[in-house]
DNA sequence: GCTACTCATAACTAAACTCGAATATGATAG
DNA sequence: CTATCATATTCGAGTTTAGTTATGAGTAGC
């Protein structure tokens, strides 16, 4: 169920989709109608965005009668955090190497 | 120079662009020709992607004669980290509230 | 001066994405 | 069984985006 950074970035790039995910993080489990009320687009659009979020592993769904409840799965953000950590550490490692070099040049 | 999560997600959603940023994080300062060699697209495409990264504050450029040196600016990833932290904390806060509720229901 | 080199921009094409309308599917109520 | 409600899917139009080639602007070296 864990997706790479690529799918995460692409999925979260859309503002409407990100807003849906944010609402689910804030308010917990919600139905499609409830999410559609808060959104600025039609119900089919909301359903499609939820499908994309689900395929990326960012949300989970639960069927109950004719309702579908969606909830956020923030654990799916892991690879995204790992990626930013990696990029930052690359940079810091380079800074450290530069400092070492300058120290060696001093003596 | 600090950009919101929206611009960051949209800018990093493209694989080619993200690869350029990753290379700059790993290898430090590089010229456009050097970056084009490693990329799988033409030089104009690389230039456009670098422009997008620069507008998002993710890279900085330095002109030296007829060369332009680009370098990563990982500090720009801050809002992205803040956003993921916020989403995770929303979720954890909800879990905590749920546990409290269950404790109250026990007694 | 001229030529070669580096990078950015312009103009265009093709593919991808998003949206709403209409429709299909599936479940409950009467 | 039929009607209605909740959600998903299909389809076509409009928009955005990334890619290309061609070209322009600025610099280095002869």
From TrEMBL, chains A, B:
The keyword Metal-binding does not apply. SMART domains: HTH_ARSR. InterPro entries: ArsR-like_HTH, HTH_ArsR_DNA-bd_dom, HTH_MetalResp_TranReg, WH-like_DNA-bd_sf, WH_DNA-bd_sf. GO terms for molecular function: DNA binding; DNA-binding transcription factor activity. SUPFAM superfamilies: Winged helix' DNA-binding domain. It comes from the Bacteria. Residues 1-92 form the HTH arsR-type domain. Keywords: DNA-binding, Transcription, Transcription regulation. The keyword DNA-binding applies. Pfam families: HTH_20. This is ArsR family transcriptional regulator. It comes from Arsenicitalea aurantiaca.
